[in-house]
Amino acid sequence: MKQLVPITIMCLASAAAFGQGQDLTGQVLDVAGRPVVGATVLEKGTNNGTGTDGSGRFTLRARSQSPTLVISSIGFAPQEVSAGAGPISVRLAESTTSLDAVQVVGSRSQNRSVTDSPSPVDIIDIREVTAKTGQLDVNQLLQFVAPSFNSNRQTGSDGADHVDPASLRGLGPDQTLVLVNGKRQHQSALVNLFGSRGRGNTGTDLNVIPAASIQRIEILRDGAAAQYGSDAIAGVINIVLKNSVDELTVSANYGAYDAKYRFDNDRFDGGNFNANVNYGIGVGTKGGFINATLDYNKREHTQRANVPSPDGIARRQYGDPEVSNAAAYLNAKFPLSDKAHIYTFGGMNKRGGDAYAWTRFPDDDRNVPAIYPNGFDPIITSDIVDGSAVVGARVLVGEWDLDLSNNFGSNRFEYGLRNTLNATLGASSPTTFDAGGFQLQQNVVGLSATRNYKTVLQGFNLAAGAEYRREWYSLFAGEEASYRNYAPGSDLAGGSQGFPGYQPSDAIKAKRDNVGAYIDAELNVTQRWLLAAALRYENYSDFGSTLNYKAATRYNLTEFLTLRGTFSTGFRAPSLAQINFNSTFTNFIGGQPVEVLLARNNSAVTQKLGIPSLKQETSTSANVGLTSRLGSSLSLTLDGYYIKVNDRVVLTSQFSADDPIIGADLQALNVGQAQFFANAASTSSLGLDVVLSHTLTLNSGRLNSTLAANFNRLRIDRVTTSGRLTGREDEFFGPREQAFVKASAPPSKINLTFDYQLGRFGALLRFVRFAEVELIDYDGNTQVYDPRTTTDLSLSYALTDHLQLSMGSSNLFNVYPNRFDPQLTETGGAWDPVQMGSNGRFYFAKLQARF
């Protein structure tokens, strides 16, 4: 890593020596002559680009002799212009007259831009982000760019070590809907059982989609179940895949952590290598394309177990898992005529992971000294295969834009164990096991119709559609030795240590059907006043029907000030995994192993206790905000929100075998503790999103400054019990479990970013402040993780017109959360997965070629 310093110095020193091309200036307007703010201006075939300011103007230092600029903006048709002498003037046409129309999430009007949306929408240009930051996967990119988004890597959390749970506005991972090119993305088959984030939730694995295949990410920070269906309580993340043609992009990245707490000879660990290639070719003469991406990522273990503790260590191995990830993604459009085309997109992702489980020390009765005289650290392996494929057709029939599509997705997760044993087999025990796993599949057939009536007042957009969705879930058992106790009656625990395999009694196959229909309308009453409404009906074969609505408005008080507001109801159907998951696993409480039964919702145990079948979560949300352009280079958005969620599906507290009500039943099942899924909690969230952006021409360069913040307060309003556990609220969903729900996000996250570009040289400086987080340890004591601020710094330099080098550091000052006794944390390490993570400073270097 020491080589980074001289390379950086060489790049900076040679900046003055490189000859610069011509300075290009211009203005981007719409057809009415109004400036297009935030339009993207790229020099074709290079890494060179910029954006327009508050007056639609831009300045760009060209790198080629005869530059061609590609100018684009949401809601407008992209345009290529050849630079000549003098200023460039471009007028972008609205893209509503062709099937190339781009739709921003949150509105089905194809000429709605982000700035005039009635709901708050963040647009994240992945090309800009990946070129200048050290994060390589989508979750970590968003964690440090979008304040309302939170995701941390977890350790000691079984499957969640391999699939990073993420949340929006402090709600659960399964309360955010993920779309790809506007189509529903399937969820992961995994149920998160441990860790501080996503506990008891299923969610969508964003990291199956390589960042190299993404053009932009749209984050709708508003309830949208009435528009898009289940899961959109907190908002919607729409991932838009690349559609560029005749451009080859190749990237190679490497980084590693400064292992501050390692006491061996390894100064760095957690090496992270990523390589990818993206290329698109044109098809026909009517805008067709095929854009393909190949991506490979290899992430090594970090080691953070060697932290002094007043009571010794709980684990000898603690840190990020080792992960290998390979993906191939495709996005394509095949024109049939001026009024029809076929499209397809999707991809495959193959991931393998190694995560350390809790240590079995030499004198542990779960160890066999003949096999491991020094004890052992079980390794939980994962084999995850994720695939999706969407095929559809769009056609103009009169004034109607029709879209018919079929969307299939599958996520399969298989567990394995190595460096472990089954203690009841003694010295003859194998040391590797197949522990079983689960799979979730989804197929969606959808038909939508959209029409824009330009002569109705100032414009009326009408959309309607219907969807049929079928979901399948299966849980399959592992090999016999992974779960069986071969010495019944003894004190020895059966099954593979670290993660007992799923038993045949856990295995299940389940499915359900869903039918939905919606109508969505937007009316521009005047040029200043917009009204919008949506209504959606859905019926699930396993719990019934739901009807939800949304109303929204936007009013331009002046040319520089706009007010907006929304009110909506929403819902989230319990996932098939939450309904059908069943497992017996080992948990460590105060460092002591305990066998825990997680009984499926309709099992004999839950029925005996009177726990009802899971039903939908329901929500009410409101958003009130303003957008303002304070001069030509300064913009501000403020959005306050309130989200009320009733009957949240949560993972209850664990009941022990000596419980006066349930104890006899647990003893009969030979388990020490049990817990369940139940609609046990109602919560309310009150928050504020703030985004302040400024553009400044500084000497011959350009400085973009952004202050973005999320302030969020989540409360547990009510705990609901039932059956034989009625009246035992503090035991059913107690303070410790409630703390995990509240810790889905810090109460505030503030991001201050300075992005400077001068010719071939660029620099990015970013500060992110995470507010304090409170958890409760196994002794019932409050753990307060104090506020922390991380600093990221990156420098970039265009070595040639087509080759760019970037290097820098994330968490430059090596900031860690507060440390606690590993014997009492959830993970068995000095930190739980809160705030910015617990790996410290990260150095990185990237080389990107674009032709």
Number of helices: 10
How confident is the prediction overall: mean pLDDT?
86
The CATH class name of the largest domain reads Mainly Beta
The biggest beta sheet is recorded as: 22 strands, antiparallel, barrel
Categorize the overall geometry: globular
Strand content: over 45%
CATH architecture of the largest domain: Beta Barrel
CATH superfamily of the largest domain: TonB-dependent receptor, beta-barrel domain
Low-confidence parts? 1-20, 96-102
**Rg:** 27 Å
Number of strands: 41
* CATH T-level topology of the largest domain: Maltoporin, Chain A
SS-derived structural category: mainly beta
Euclidean distance between termini CA atoms: 29 Å
Structure description:
- One of its GO terms (cellular component) is cell outer membrane.
- Belongs to the TonB-dependent receptor family.
- It holds the Pfam family TonB_dep_Rec_b-barrel.
- Its main location: membrane.
- With 851 residues, the protein is mostly beta strands.
- A hairpin with a 5-residue loop joins strand 37 (773-776) and strand 38.
- The chain is globular and about 90 Å long.
- The two termini are 29 Å apart.
- Mean pLDDT is 86; it is low at 1-20 and 96-102.
